[in-house]
Write a structure and sequence with these properties.
The chain is α+β, with helices and mostly antiparallel strands and 271 residues long. The chain has 2 domains: 2-124 and 256-268, Diaminopimelate Epimerase, Chain A, domain 1, CATH 3.10.310.10; 128-249, Roll (Diaminopimelate Epimerase, Chain A, domain 1). 16% of the residues lie in helices and 46% in strands. The chain contains 4 helices and 18 strands. It has helices at residues 30-38, 76-88, 165-173, 211-223, and strands at 2-12, 15-21, 48-53, 60-66, 71-72, 96-101, 104-113, 116-123, 128-134, 142-147, 151-156, 183-191, 194-201, 205-207, 230-235, 238-244, 251-256, 258-268. A hairpin with a 6-residue loop joins strand 16 (238-244) and strand 17. The chain is globular and about 60 Å long. The protein binds ligand LBFN2T5F. Residues 15, 64, 66, 72, 75-78, 150, 183, 201-204, 207, 210-212 line the site of ligand LBFN2T5F.
Amino acid sequence: MTTIIKFTKMHGAGNDYIYVDTTRYPIADPEKKAIEWSKFHTGIGSDGLILIGVSDKADFSMRIFNADGSEAMMCGNGSRCVGKYVYEYGLTDKTEITLDTLSGIKILKLQVEGKTVNTVTVDMGSPQETGEIDWRKKYPFQSTKVSMGNPHLVTFVDDITRINLPEIGPELENHPLFPDRTNVEFAQIVGKDTIRMRVWERGSGITQACGTGACATAVAAFINGLAGRKSDVIMDGGTVTIEWDETSGHILMTGPATKVFDGEIVEEMES
Ligand SMILES: N[C@@H](CCC[C@H](N)C(=O)O)C(=O)O
C-alpha cells in the first residue's frame, strides 16, 4: 500500500520545521516521524516536525516535536509559521487566529501584504518560573531560568564568540538541576535594547533561532536591568522583536515566517 503525505518546509528566522496539515494527512507516530524526517542526510532535514490540527477551543491546534522525537509544549518560531500556513493555504481568512498549544491558547496577529504573510505577532502569554542560578565554581557565570511554556536557561556573557556552545549546550541541557532538560541560551548585550543570542535547543541541538528562547532572553535581560521592556534579539538566522507588555504582563513576539518548499513523502507499506 502507498501512502502520500504532503508537507511544507518553513522557517522562522532560520528555525526550520516540517509542517503537516493533519486534517488531511493524519500522522499516527509523530515521535518516530520527527526523528526520521528531521535527519539531514537521510530525511528531509529540519529542527523537527510541527503538526497543524483542529481544536475545540481555538481556530487551530499545533503540536511540536523536536528532532529527537520529544514533544515540547510550545514553539515560538513555529507558531508564526503556522499562522502563515493556515492563511496562505486557505484554511482561514482571519488575520487574528487563536492557536491551541500544550502551553495554552496563543493569539497570532498576521501582517499581510497582498496575499502573503511576512511577519506575525504572537501573544506568548506571561513568563513563568523565573529564577537565578549561581553556578559558583562550576561555571564562571550566573544564569536566569525562564519558562515560556517550555524551559529556558539564559546566560549573559561579555563575549558570546568565546562560548563553546556544542560543548556547554548539551552539558547544561542535561544538568541534574533540570529533570525535564532545558533549552540553553547564551546572550550578549550589543547595543541599547539589542541582544545577540545563540541557542542550544533541548532535543534539537544548535538551531539558527528559537522564538521562546528569544522571549526568555528578553525577559532575563529586563529582569537583570540589561534592557528595557522592548528589545530586538538577533540570532544566527534572523531577528525577532520582543515586548513585555506592562499592562497585561504578556510577551509579544514579532518576527518573520518564511516558506521554503512544498513536498510529499511517499511511504510504501507492506499490505
Ligand atoms: N524552536 C522553538 C522551541 C522548540 C522546542 C524546544 N526545543 C523545547 O524542547 O522546549 C521555538 O521557536 O520556540
